[in-house]
Amino acid sequence: MTQQPETVSSAKSAKRPLRFWLLCAGAGICGVAAASVVVGWMTVSHVNFGPFVGRRATAMLGRDVSVESLSVTPGRWLKLDLGGVKVANIPGGSKPDMVDVGHLSVEIKLSTLLHGPMLVRHVTGSDIHVLVERTPDRQPNWRFKTKDIPGEASAKPHAPAADITSPDQVVPDDRSSYPTVLDVQMHNSDVTYRTAHGSEFRSTLNTITLNTKDASSPVSFTVDGAYNGQPVQLDATLQPFDALRQTHKPYGMVVKGQSGDFKFTFDGTATDPLNADGLSGAVTAETPTSRPLMTIAGMDLPQDIPLHMEGQFTHAGNFWAVTQGKGVVKNNSMTITQASLMEGERGKPDQVKADVAFDQLNVNSFLGKDGASNPSGADMVLDVSSNPDPLIDAKLSAKGVTYNVYHFSDASLSASVTPGLMAVRNLSLAYLGATLKASGKIAAAEKGNARVQGDVALAKVDIDRFRRALGFKPVPLLGQVDMQMTASATQHTLNAAVQKADIAAAVAMTSGALDKKIIQAASADISMLFNKPKGATAVSCLLGVVSSHGGVGQALPMRIKTADGTLSANARFDLNRRWFDLIFSTQGKTTGRFALDIPVRVSGSFSNPSISLAKWSADGRAMLAQSERLNTLPAGVKQFAQRNACYRAIAP
To answer: How many CA atoms lie within 13 A of 632 on its CB side?
Structure first.
């Protein structure tokens, strides 16, 4: 049966409202959902995410983290505002919190959250305080034990700390995902470093600014602050953020700094720039007083020391070094082959190594307040620590050295400082044509004194040249002598040690000349009445054995063998009073047939002695009786003396 048209039309009319309402319902649901998103987006800025973020950060860092407030303002640039952020310190720390942030805000481009790296701008902060320290048991508080958060993948661990033995072992953090930061403004902040021993070094950051146009443009970075109370300003030009994200390539920078009259520049790279580590580049430093530099180092200076230095600088972990350097310190030019510092770990002292060469070094200019106005009064305190920090291994050399009233040439010193001991492995220098080689040590002693022990060898000492330099009158003996000496003293200063030292020495000559008048006068040769001797006689050997205490001593024996006779002598002396007492006589078998061989005594001041017959006084006769006795000698001095021909003729 065929359906009527009216019936079909009526059915269609009944179905249309159903579709319509279904469409309307779907549209309504979508509209409600969209409205909910919009409302949520608009109201999210009124939600405090601080407690939630604090809990998440605590779980991740393994350290209590609290965030008083964290607001999010949505938009093309997502704005975050944080306040009252605190990160707890480790157990045993000097303060409860390691980090305390008063306020911090940042804007992040929303689209870069989906496809990084992030683009960040308008970073502002104030009242940010950071405490970096080691506890008394040497535990660092800047290492966090990160924990996995359930349901999330573990964060990529930081590179393990390197065991620094050379600059090449610094392992940088992965920088590939670091954001680009267009501008930063920080105020009223500080970073304090506290050592395990309780010493604090505070960096005050009054203002920090950073600016760049984009990820491919250079970065300008400035700091206005202070270190240990000494004002410091830094102005740096850094490579773009694109270069920063290339982890395995050193990051370039040029840094200029100033603190008072101290200025420095660094032009180089860093393999770990965010930690200021893995530094390598050219450095210059200049100051007319060195006072700002010493204030930063926590040291005092009794005088101004102008300094200019340049060289290659390296910092890797605990290792700091300057190589290929040159400079001027208080008008003394120097070349720095190496100057390095290895910071000590776990209660160990720092270690300093230096290899420095001077052109001309005036030691007097460094001694005393504002230099030594009276060079003869220059002195050096012998201060030896039982727990020195740092330990020192140094090599110093100079073409010329001025100390006290003396001027030396071709000087070199190799020395070390270890607990309770300062050791001189080698000291060599030239003075008035003679050469000196020495070694010794300075050890800590009671009552603030130091025990000084040394071995000294002198060669090619020209008698007449030294006589004139010391202000003595002409002496009848010419030629060069050699000397081997041991010395020891327990004193507080270097000059006192020299004046009070116990000395054993042997002086020898293998060729020279002696005025003939001395031999004939010593032998009381009556032929002098008719024929006065002229000229000098050759000396085939000379040996003098000297022992003294505090500048007072005896030369026993002294022997000179010449072509005209052999002269034996015995002398006492007091260098403090510039006084001596000399007995000499000739051996009858070695002189002429007219010689009476009468012993003679010369006694008195160095400048004006008197002459008499030795046997006329008890002192003279006693000294004559000793003339053939040999002093007891240390092994090194004895071996030196035994090589001289005059030694074999002396009784033990």
So the answer is: 0
